[in-house]
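Annex B. Sample input.
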Amino acid sequence: MGLFDQGTTTIQATDIQLEPAEAFAAIALIAVAADGVITRSESQGINNIFSRMQLFSDYSKERKTEMQDRLLGMIKNKEIKPLFDAAVAKLPKELRETVFAVSTDLVLVDGDLAEEEEQLLNELYNALEISEAVATNIIDVMMIKNKG
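Annex B, continued. Sample output.
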């Protein structure tokens, strides 16, 4: 069973209102949660990335925490598919390759690519309309980066 096949939900993507930064965060969090576990290194990775990005510069630490808690709550409530669809729709086109690279980096930070994570990355690059060649290059670079 894939990440997007889990549970049933009555919430629709159109019911979810996201700002561009929240859309970016939602995709990254869905990627990290793909294998069913968010490790300490993945959690630290998310916080480090968000703290460095201009996209989150207007977010206080408390606001980032509240945003992550809200998005993780939706993921835990099996509202993954509508959240994913809403996030992809709201994400600015210029951030599509960036969120794919960040998501790939985050799922590889634990040194392992679980089957669920690989499936998610395949679905993600397709949903974001990233070419297979670009997606493959990003994955290759992130695998090198996270090798040691």
